[in-house]
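[audit] Reproducing an earlier prediction to check determinism. Same input, same settings, fresh worker. If the tokens differ from the archived copy the diff job will pick it up downstream; this log only records the rerun itself.
[audit] input (1532 residues):
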Amino acid sequence: MTKIYGTGVYDFRRHRVAEYPVSVDASQPHESDKGPNLSGSITLSEIQRDRLTKIAAANWAVNADSGIKKPFSEELVKDIYYSELTVKGGRKPVPLQRVMILEVSQYLENYLWPNFDPETSSFEHVMSMILMVNEKFRETMAAWICFYERKETFKAFIERVLRLKEGRLLSVAEKTNYLLFMINAFQSLEDEIVSEKIMRLASLECWHSLSYGRFQMELCLNESLIKKWRRIAKRAKDAAKRGEPFDPTTMVEARFLRNLIEEFLEVLDSEVFPAKQRDVKDTDLSDTNEMHEGDDASILYCERFMEFLIDLLSQLPTRRLVRPLVADVAVVSKCHLSTLYKHERGRLFAQLVDLLQYYEGFEIDDQKGRQMTDDEVLQAHYKRFQAFQVLAFKKIPKLRELALANIGAIDKRANLAKKLSILSPEELRDVVCSKLKLISKDDPWSERVDFLIEVMVSFFEKQQSQREAINALPLYPNEQIMWDESLVPSINYSGEGCLALPKLNLQFLTLHDYLLRNFNLFRLESTYEIREDIQEAVPHLLAYINNEGETAFRGWSRMAVPIKEFKITEVKQPNIGEVKPSAVTAEVTFSISSYKAQIRSEWNALKEHDVLFLLSIRPSFEPLSAEEAAKASVLQKLGLQYVRGCEIVEIRDEEGTLMNDFTGKIKRDEWKPPKGELRTVTIALDTAQYHMDVSDMAEKGLEDVYGTFNILMRRKPKENNFKAILESIRDLMNESCIVPDWLHDIFLGYGNPSAAKWTNMPDLLEVVDFKDTFLDAAHVEESFPNYQVCFINSDGTTNMHPCSPFRIKFPKTFNGDHHSLSGNKIKKVSPTDSAASADPDSEKEKLFVEAYIPPDPGPYPQDQPKQNSVRFTPTQIEAIISGIQPGLSMVVGPPGTGKTDTAVQVLNVLYHNCPSQRTLIITHSNQALNDLFEKIMERDVPARYLLRLGQGEQELATDLDFSRQGRVNAMLVRRLELLSEVERLARSLQLPEDVAYTCETAGYFWLLHVYSRWEVFLAACVENRDKPSFVKDRFPFKEFFNNTPGPIFTGQSFEKDMHAAKGCFRHLQTIFQELEECRAFELLKSTVDRSNYLMTKQAKIVAMTCTHAALKRKDFLNLGFKYDNLLMEESAQILEIETFIPMLLQRQEDGYARLKRCILIGDHHQLPPVVKNMAFQKYSHMDQSLFTRFVRLGIPYIELNAQGRARPSLARLYNWRYKDLGDLSSVRENAIFHRANAGFGYDYQLVDVPDYRGRGETAPSPWFYQNEGEAEYIVSVYMYMRSLGYPANKISILTTYNGQKLLIRDVINRRCVPFDFIGPPHKVTTVDKFQGQQNDFILLSLVRTRFVGHLRDVRRLIVAMSRARLGLYIFCRRSLFEQCYELQPTFQLLLQRPDLLVLNLSEVTSFTDRHVEETGASQLVSGIEEMADIVNYKIHQVYQARLMSHQLNDFPASPERDFVGINAQEENGLENTEVSMHAMDIDSRGLANGVDKDILPDGNSNDVSSPEIYAKQGGDKQLQNNLNTEADVDMQ
């Protein structure tokens, strides 16, 4: 298997999505050393003065000031192309800054595409469109949307693109741009308008360009293609008969790929290193600087072409027919022999060639799409080699020795090349071209002996299996990998170059391919994060060389501690068939004496399986000079020699006592706090890395790495779980990875996308008991608008008065697609309505719904089941039906559409219909899991069947403990309660009480005395049904139930009393059933055994996060964990591999997967999973979730279509992104959604914020964007809201950048925290962090004034717009955001209202009766200064009112006294009451709870004063005087 690499040696400058680049001279400092606002950066004023901006304004730009545009000019397109879009020399194929300005101005959407004509548009026009599409892909924008309205024209455009090179010579930069367009097109095969034309290029017609020998060989190997080829030939014959000229070899698809490959080989051979450089290479290469440089543009083109071929071979639809073409031209062999492959400038190219070679020889049956086993690969290798040996024995006398040799002795590269070297060039050419037909005789390279040998060796050598390669790889990164820029790019990837990384595409070759790509990407992403942590921790240690010449440390680090002693304690013998040791353990001793208590507790909290890193630091004797530091590598600057990872086995204190034991060796009551300051950690080293290190010591004489460690480093627990996940992936690769048959093809991206839909699955539930899903009969009817609902009784008769609950028998023709009404058209349907519309119903298919009377659950209140109160919409009902049936169910839940309620009801109905099945719940975050779990607890699922695993369990808002230990304790407590009830029952039956001694004796008691009495009673009832009081008189357990809240029997109706009697018996039945379940906990004595039994046998619904599932997979397998159903919430936020692992937490049964249902719930229109490294995110698509991939593949999904979170007016800001998102009746009818926001003219507004103090956005450090004007403005508005009485916990402040978040927090600490009646808001955070949460009022800062930035990702916009329920106020630069094409639907709505903040200053409390559509006595706020004046005046009024109140009560004015008074007022519920002199009332509940703790000052801020400090500095009077003076000045 080839190695997987990162970027090459080339410098991809650090910038995020859609930033303006800066041309950096090689002699200047690197861009990352400079802030973006230094002289090199482009400013907004420069953009506005730019020539392209002026051209755009005159010709196509759409904004508020746009006037009449000039007519379209093809000459203008040509002028822009040649003057702005072409480059001369250099590595970059386009002037990125110019392309970005054009793309932002909507050059493609408003000018190029509307005026494109397939017949008349020029070459420059087409190339300009290609560049704009490429730019959209670089910025990860939706590139094909603007083409949808003219699909036929788009097909003609693609045809023009395919024939663009005919009769025209392109420059290397143009070839690169053209190639990049083809790469992007082949990455968009899910888009029909693209795939229809592009997939022709990879069709069977491309085999017209194969050499004859290769063509014959491929048809012999793939007989199924012969019929298809004959059909192609028949079309040509038919055309000839009709006299029509038809030559299939002249078709575009016949020669397109072949021509591209030949063009690439020409560039590789003649343009990378021009001829004059190659001529001097043989004379004195070392003195030729030019030869060392090469042509940058040609090198980039060659790298891009490798990426293009890798993409084609890594997707099965294109691979099947393209791989023979690549092999026919012997691309890999020619690349291996090229000058660039061996040159230092070709490092990235070489890595890409290796990756291409890996995919060309991938272990798969191309035609069947089946993964080949290791044995099949080996047998195929032997068969191929044996056939060659037979041929050599018969026809090549010189190779007789090779023909008779053992295959194992000659199938290595060196041995095979040696054996072939005895052939003359002519003989070798004859073997390769004529006998084996590996290449064509016409190939110009066929004259080269080295090439012919390379082709032979590549074809016949034995390749290392992928499984062997992955098992030999250390899981922990070392220093060589961490700081190798070609492996782990330390800078953010801009998208201008390619990388030798695997991509997560729509489709994968096999499950092995899927796992391997994820393994490599996850490993490199983890390495990047570990490296960042090391670079942060090590400099704090201040390492130096002491007088003894040893390394010592002046400083300290929270995450790293010096090692006192390190020794390897055990190296175990290798396992059979392996060379590496089976285990290597060591002991590390360190001291925590220099740490404070908090940090000590963190080190003491280390536990088994935590990952640590051993560092060897050896600084230089003298500090590096400025020149040396500039040239030094990161390792030299840090003095870092070696890095090795390890895993904790156990940790002991100074007395040798075991700490943090979770294995049950130490009982909880015997646990003692750790003693002393020395800690000894037993660690397990990576055996593969240890073997490599020891081998290097023995063979190369290198120093002993393990004798040099002097630092032990830890990481934050939440970020340090990479090893367990990598182990899980590697284990899956070593297993016969069984995905359910119904899911396998869909998972890989092939076959019918609807194959796993429940209507296409076997073993459907024909009758479903929906329990409390439907609230009434009308609810059933409105849930199935396309069916005639017929209510029946259990005996099949018509039910005229149906009541909940209902059972539904689904007809075989039920398609699961109700074509539900849109959210705004959902209405209640009454029985009279359905009767009135009898004619339409007669045409509909009938749906029989059985209304039944549920059995009496028992006489006690706790016996009554908890009922659902949510009136589910038809679409939610459709999702519930899909979820409870077998197969794959996908539910898209837009913001506020009740996806959690839907998920809970699926679990509820599934539990009652399939009580023996077990369900696993997975979410991305603990918060989402807890929300889901808390709602499940409110449904009719017994608590004993619920289990919550992981760290977030303690955050559940319940008194019950749902952890493993908590559930075990609950079962033991419940056992005692039940046995006491059995004892009471025995007394009531006048039997000995010792029957309740154990669960076992209670079981015998049930059979002998309880159940037998019930059978006798039932037999007697049969003969006495005519006696109304018989049940009351003869019920055998009447005395036991004498403590019920009311009388059980009336004695007036036999039927009613019998129904109650059965309820009583059901109560008894439940008691003994629970006791039977408790019996295992009685028999098992160990806490560990009990908790394992609970998890694997007892619990029916088990919930955990995806991270916990990946970490504990091995434990689940060892315990025999089983589950039938998987429900995954937030699945659009979970990485591909973290979604896949939870599907495989159990072993297969008899070769089959047990999983029956997979329910994925998420929203691909919101933000994807977080990937820190931009290279992995943008190039490798590592942030692609499985949910999003399934949606792109066209797998059917149900989209919930009615939101109940926000005002309808606010929902319009984001509902355009969804298919048919309407509003629930609650948000249309509830009074709170009709009332205006007091003090504001509108419920939402875009507020234009100009430069503040002459500045817009700033960046104190790279990519740390801030906007002081927006921060001041937003905090002033917050203070205004608090002065009106808006609760702090109802207000959240969001922003799109971390820098702005911290700036806003600083402003709040300075302006709000000193005033006890204002305080901080509920949250100040970023949009990304706030996903999944909501609040009544959102104040949003968009920060940027120079460029839109990452808000161009529409998913981030949707999250930002959908967090508010009642009010949303957006602060931004209007002129910038109104021009952004992707954001138009939202910003067009926002800009229909004034862009100055509209306030209603006549409203002085947070309550108003004004309707939301009325602005009232409004006032426009001119800007930041006026808003500050208004706030000062409001605060002045509050203090005037306070002062008068104190004077009237004859109390001294003191903030401390006031603070107590306000809190007391709130506790009495006195908020929003007016005080004298029109003062504003105050509500500071947010100070007590619900406030973001990060906002509060921590004592290290010099410009923040708390209310208590104010009191010490002079009390209310001094503050009042200051405010009076300030208010007088400001209001003048």
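[audit] rerun output stored. Observation attached for the diff report: The longest helix spans residues 1054-1083.
[audit] end
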